């Protein structure tokens, strides 16, 4: 019997507007199916981020909660220390931008991020809303990304990260790529339950945390993926 | 009401003709097209049609249509009431509602949350009713804190009497710039959008219905009206047993708001309440339809807070059919399904249908709720034994089902 997998959901009170809870539930389910016990902590923004987690999740939010979230994470330092000791992180949408050096606030003003990813974001001209599909960096061994994006951000990737994927449909970072990764960190504009549409990405995070995983039956996940990809791919 | 200027009379008449044509040709109920034609001909039509009436505007994320109906029912005690009963809640719908009933001295208009500032400016309504704000169809709707901020700016400096639910912190913040507010403790089931202070971003401490910011002075105002389970307590401390025909806690909350609103029009609870009890269904919501020995109760749920309300109405002993679409009016993004806790359905036969049934199927699978996937609503109904069944559907899925039963009222 191994010890529990510790999942830490950061700031659901601030950054959880698009079913972000879905990513937590999918990780829990896919760990349980492999007999891995899970302990999940929901960290409110008034509380310290625990440093001993295995997988950290942070979600999307409106402009003001995003700025508050970035300030509190910077002041707290728990997430930064957890990443330094090798924890995995999935950062979504507003949470993705927070991980960079800078992002755009309500009026487009630059707001400092927490610098865990070598990216910088700003406010674009128009909102990107809709289905997205993208080919994932072959290094990661994850099939075509599918999901929904709803953001005005444009993200520039520095040399310290690689694009997570190349977009087939949708906007993503704004330069033909979507998201980024480095070490055990994945950032993406695919908001809300991104892992429900991309169980391969969920398993990547789980493998980073616990090592090789046995295959499981992907019935409903696969049917939903196929339907969504067929609806948007040329 | 007084005479409209000639141009407005003509615009209003042509709009009504367009509405009649729309109904006659089976294209719709005519309430949007008629208003659009009228507004095109006379942009100031809404202002002119609203002048000289006593007007209430009703806005919220959930319960707008039902509360509009309840207030309308109550005010009929005082006289004729114009209302956009079909839920066409933007200015074209308002024009249509007011021009079809020009003589009515009262009007109750359901208003889309985004349009409230514009409609308040145009109509100079004397009463504004604000119930709740929560996440809703975020691919097309505005972010709710921004909405509340726009409400604040719109109400600031206006004479309107606001009736607002003080159990919802964001609504309280949105209403609190108004010159005069009657606070109603109407309850708040969905709390996931109000953990942070709308004023300063600090954490909100919540104890039962009460709430207060830990970091600034923003706190729940003292309510004038209180919903206490089955009863409403009025500002004099008198307790009124609601005994509504409409089911569920959300409707008791809507009724508490409606009673407070009626009183703002000078109508006392003993006169308003019997009128509220006459409302049995609202544009198909809560209605029961029959098919092959099965009695199907239709419940509409458009967002996570709406699903909580629908679960509250639904009877645990009934099988349930869930139908989800993602067309424009539903929001094309199904992410919100993950904000709904479906585990409450465990132990009931659950049938899943609708255009986005696979999204819902995976959601239920991850929640550990057993279900059966059905290709159509008809199949889902036929698969269940005769008896009582509850149906919960989101907007276009609900309308499609309602149409199968001749647009059931």
TrEMBL record, chain A:
Any Pfam family: GATase_3
Catalysed reaction, written as an equation: L-glutamine + H2O = L-glutamate + NH4(+); beta-D-GlcNAc-(1->4)-Mur2Ac(oyl-L-Ala-gamma-D-Glu-L-Lys-D-Ala-D-Ala)-di-trans,octa-cis-undecaprenyl diphosphate + L-glutamine + ATP + H2O = beta-D-GlcNAc-(1->4)-Mur2Ac(oyl-L-Ala-D-isoglutaminyl-L-Lys-D-Ala-D-Ala)-di-trans,octa-cis-undecaprenyl diphosphate + L-glutamate + ADP + phosphate + H(+)
Binding site for substrate: 127
Record has Ligase as a keyword: yes
Single annotated GO MF: glutaminase activity
EC identifiers of the protein: 6.3.5.13, 3.5.1.2
Pathway stated in the Swiss-Prot or TrEMBL entry: Cell wall biogenesis; peptidoglycan biosynthesis
Subunit-structure text: Forms a heterodimer with MurT.
Family in the record: Belongs to the CobB/CobQ family. GatD subfamily.
Sorted UniProt keywords: Cell shape, Cell wall biogenesis/degradation, Glutamine amidotransferase, Hydrolase, Ligase, Peptidoglycan synthesis, Transferase
CobB/CobQ-like glutamine amidotransferase domain segment(s): 6-198
Top-rank taxon: Bacteria
Name used for this protein in its record: Lipid II isoglutaminyl synthase (glutamine-hydrolyzing) subunit GatD
Species assigned in the record: Acrocarpospora corrugata
Protein's job: The lipid II isoglutaminyl synthase complex catalyzes the formation of alpha-D-isoglutamine in the cell wall lipid II stem peptide. The GatD subunit catalyzes the hydrolysis of glutamine to glutamate and ammonia. The resulting ammonia molecule is channeled to the active site of MurT.
PANTHER family: DETHIOBIOTIN SYNTHETASE, LIPID II ISOGLUTAMINYL SYNTHASE (GLUTAMINE-HYDROLYZING) SUBUNIT GATD
GO biological process: cell wall organization; cobalamin biosynthetic process; peptidoglycan biosynthetic process; regulation of cell shape
Catalytic residue list: 93, 191
Automatic annotation (TrEMBL), chain B:
Associated pathway: Cell wall biogenesis; peptidoglycan biosynthesis
Residues in Mur ligase central domain copies: 61-261
Keywords associated with the record: ATP-binding, Cell shape, Cell wall biogenesis/degradation, Ligase, Metal-binding, Nucleotide-binding, Peptidoglycan synthesis, Zinc
EC number of the protein: 6.3.5.13
Tree of life domain: Bacteria
GO-annotated biological processes: cell wall organization; peptidoglycan biosynthetic process; regulation of cell shape
Active site positions, chain numbering: 333
GO molecular function: acid-amino acid ligase activity; ATP binding; carbon-nitrogen ligase activity on lipid II; zinc ion binding
Keyword field contains Glycoprotein: no
Alphabetical list of InterPro entries matching this protein: Lipid_II_synth_MurT, Mur-like_cat_sf, Mur_ligase_cen, MurT_C
Catalytic activity: beta-D-GlcNAc-(1->4)-Mur2Ac(oyl-L-Ala-gamma-D-Glu-L-Lys-D-Ala-D-Ala)-di-trans,octa-cis-undecaprenyl diphosphate + L-glutamine + ATP + H2O = beta-D-GlcNAc-(1->4)-Mur2Ac(oyl-L-Ala-D-isoglutaminyl-L-Lys-D-Ala-D-Ala)-di-trans,octa-cis-undecaprenyl diphosphate + L-glutamate + ADP + phosphate + H(+); beta-D-GlcNAc-(1->4)-Mur2Ac(oyl-L-Ala-gamma-D-O-P-Glu-L-Lys-D-Ala-D-Ala)-di-trans,octa-cis-undecaprenyl diphosphate + NH4(+) = beta-D-GlcNAc-(1->4)-Mur2Ac(oyl-L-Ala-D-isoglutaminyl-L-Lys-D-Ala-D-Ala)-di-trans,octa-cis-undecaprenyl diphosphate + phosphate + H(+); beta-D-GlcNAc-(1->4)-Mur2Ac(oyl-L-Ala-gamma-D-Glu-L-Lys-D-Ala-D-Ala)-di-trans,octa-cis-undecaprenyl diphosphate + ATP = beta-D-GlcNAc-(1->4)-Mur2Ac(oyl-L-Ala-gamma-D-O-P-Glu-L-Lys-D-Ala-D-Ala)-di-trans,octa-cis-undecaprenyl diphosphate + ADP
Lipid II isoglutaminyl synthase (glutamine-hydrolyzing) subunit MurT C-terminal domain mapped to chain residues: 300-397
Protein function: The lipid II isoglutaminyl synthase complex catalyzes the formation of alpha-D-isoglutamine in the cell wall lipid II stem peptide. The MurT subunit catalyzes the ATP-dependent amidation of D-glutamate residue of lipid II, converting it to an isoglutamine residue.
Assembly, per entry: Forms a heterodimer with GatD.
Family: Belongs to the MurCDEF family. MurT subfamily.
Name of this protein: Lipid II isoglutaminyl synthase (glutamine-hydrolyzing) subunit MurT
Organism field: Acrocarpospora corrugata
